[in-house]
Structure formats: structure tokens, C-alpha cells
Amino acid sequence: MTPARRRWVCLVAALLWTSGAGWLVAHHWLVRLGDYGPVPSPVEPWALRLHGGCGYAAVALLGLLWGVHIGPRWRMRRARLSGALLVSVTLVLTGSGWLLYYVADDDWRAGIAQLHWLLGLAGLPVFLAHRPPARGRARRGRAAPDL
Length: 147
Hints:
By secondary structure, the chain is mainly α. The protein contains five helices and two strands. It has helices at about 5-30, 45-75, 80-100, 105-130, 135-145; strands spanning about 30-35, 35-40.
């Protein structure tokens, strides 16, 4: 993968994780008590908007990665376990994020939301485990064709 594509993937992943974690903090711990009950933090809707936009970017990048990184690396038998786990987590997060837009039943929605944020928080270590050390990336980048 080219260094520019790698930077885009890392930027979108970082924004996606940070905005999701930010929403979680704002939603659960930055609520204040108003005259008529709990008042959400003003950070909450903006974190959710940023998270949704980054989610769309992540889906687009997944499509790009499927062609230029995932398929070729799968055939080379490189990092298959961590890659398969990362793709699986990404697909479940994509599906659960989509369901959060459309499921109206409160009980179902609460379960989907909990799955989404637990898996989202766990996605960061999976992502970091999949990335090779910087020294190994530079060495491989010279030996392998740049996708």
C-alpha cells in the first residue's frame, strides 16, 4: 500500500475511533441535570455527526483496501489471522452502525448500541496488532511492489 493510502487509512481510523469514544464519553459522563431533567452535552451530537461521516469514509476505504491490499496480501499469506479479525470487526461495526440508524425498538437498539461500542473500542488494539512495526514496513515496502 502506498504511504499516502496508509496515512489516509490511519487518519480515518483515528478519527472514527476518537469520535466514537468521544460520543461515548459525552453520552454517558457529560450529561448535566437541567430544570426539566438530564440535558445532553453539546459535544454529543457533533461527535456523532463526525463519527457517521468517518464511518462512510471507512466503508469507502474498505472497498479500496479490498482491491489493493486485502486480496493481494491474502494470496501472499501475510497477517491472515489479524487481517481476517480486522475485516470481521469492521463488517460487524458497519452492519451494527447501519442498524442503529434504522432499528426503532428500544430494546433491540440498546443491545445493538452496546455491541457497537464494545466492538468499536476493541477495534483499536486489533487495528494496531495488524500493523507491522515501522521498521518492518520500510523494509517490506522496498522489497514488495507498492500497491
